[in-house]
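Figure 2 data, in text form.
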Amino acid sequence: MEFTTDIFELFGGAYLGDFSKYMYQADAYGSVFYATLLLPVAVAFVYYIVLDHILLAKNSKWMMIGALTAVASTVISLIIAHTKLNGYVFMQNIHNADIGVDDYVTFGLITFGWAALFFALFSLIFKNFSSRCRNIPF
């Protein structure tokens, strides 16, 4: 869990105070990490292995699919984080959690970046098994 915490806090560069503290205590970073990792892996697999269609063999479509995947992963991660944080704050009877919208926005931007990076990395792996999309993105 320490590793996933470090990933989302950018190895100490994006510590968000109470938000990060309660995310860690609620054990939410693990669930968010799986959502941020597994959706891009699944979409890259489907794009290169399952579909592997000539109409998808364009850099613009790959970028659009990657961006939509990162957005979907971010939304899922924010929902997980919000649900786990609310549950933790309620169960611990914390009245002034001091978690604001800016914390969620920063966390969302971080998860978007990681999801986009994961999609790009797994694209580089899966493209070797594709016949029609082998040259996408490079």
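Caption note: Helices lie at 2-8, 18-25, 29-51, 59-91, 101-126.
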